[in-house]
Amino acid sequence: MQIPMPLQEAVLRALEGYSPAVLAAAGQALSRRYRQEDPGDMRLAGAEEAAAYAVFRMPATYGAVRGALAYALEALPELSTAATLLDAGAGPGTVMWALAEVLPALERCILLEREPRMASLGQKLAQAAPRAAVQTAHWQAADLSAPWEAPVCDIVTAAYVLGELEDEAMLTLALRLWEHTGHALLLVEPGTPRAHGRMLRLRQALLEAGAYLAAPCPHSGACPLPEGDWCHAVQRIDRTGLHRLLKDGALGYEDEKFTYLVFSRTPPCPAAARVLRRPVQRKGVVQARLCTAQGIREVTVSRRDRERYREARDWTQGSRA
User: Are 239 and 254 in contact, with CB atoms under 8 Å apart?
Assistant: First the structure.
């Protein structure tokens, strides 16, 4: 997967005037903070960090959101008719770009962002979008830890935002976002043990608030994973030439691990089972670890079961099974 060419070109134009060395240093500082178990306050240190984000983190965030949205649409196919978006902690508009690629009916986007530099960058990038919904997006200055106002929207999103908040503030924000959700709420965080644990608390709070759990879980019961284990999906993202140069990376891609939750106002069609780890393919068999309503199952699918075997060969970590 790669970010859309109009966005890639807009990012390159936005980076004019910044030296590769400055961008690389700022990007490495950002990456270190994102990799920390407790990233804390992610306020930008300067304009160069906003520019570096567009190179270092925007592709990965875009890929994770696209991946999570694909799983959401499997459980909620009617979500494809969503016309309005509210994105909390929008950064430079990454989530909006990802949803605009997939949701054909999207016509109005409201983006909440506290960092003026991020919002300014996002507005510049949006002018290159082929969709009017992106070009005309409404950017609203908002600190998510303080009171803010917005209308109810069909789909509400928060990607790589909740991890910056303390537990109580995180729960308060998630419930506030649910109040503004007309149909579906999509939450995306890094694929780390800490994020998994915090997502479990969000999961319970939103279920108690009356939300239906659409994905990734095939059930609404207690998580069957043992302590120390965690659930996450993986999305492969193509690196641009600039991305490889600044990261000094030899590979033409990177794999973004992410954890996510999708809640809905109406009953979904959840997966019967979810692939927890990368399946192992051996001669004539596929072995996989699955999460099911009955708990964790280790399965082996043989070539003798032709239809199931064909399906299993396409399984990936995080996919339906």
Answer: yes
Output phi, psi for 211, to 5 deg: -75, 150
Quote the pTM value. Answer: 0.91
pLDDT, one tens digit per residue, over 66-93 is: 999 999 999 999 999 999 999 999 999 9
- Amino acid type, 230: W
Q: Quick check: 106 and 137 in contact, CB under 8 A?
A: no
For 117-142, how does the pLDDT look when each residue is reduced to its tens digit (9 = 90+)?
Answer: 999 999 999 999 999 999 999 999 99
Q: Report the percentage of the chain scoring pLDDT > 70.
A: 90
- In the block, tokens 């068999």 appear at 285
Whether residues 119 and 211 share a domain: the answer is yes
Structurally, how many domains does the chain consist of? Answer: 2
List % helix, strand, coil for the chain (3-state, nearest 5). Answer: 40, 25, 35
Look at strands 280-282 and 285-292 and give their pairing. Answer: antiparallel
Residue environment code for 99-135, b if the CB has 16+ CB neighbours within 10 A, otherwise e: bbbbbeebebbbbbbbbebbbbbbeebbebbebebbe
Q: Please give the helix or strand (H or E) that residue 95 lies within, else none.
A: helix 94-102
Are 173 and 227 in a shared domain? yes
Per-residue pLDDT band for 46 (boundaries 50, 70, 90) equals low
Of 247, 264, 281, the residue at which a domain comes to its end is: 264
What pLDDT, on a 0 to 100 scale, did the predictor assign at position 244? 61
* Residues spanned by the domain of 286: 273-312
Q: Using the predicted structure, report yes or no on whether residue 248 has a pLDDT greater than 80.
A: no
Specify the DSSP element, H or E, that contains 31. Answer: helix 20-35
Query: In this structure, are 305 and 250 located in the same domain?
Result: no
Q: How far is 40 from 316, CA to CA, in rounded Å?
A: 31
CA separation for the pair 112, 132 (Å, rounded): 19
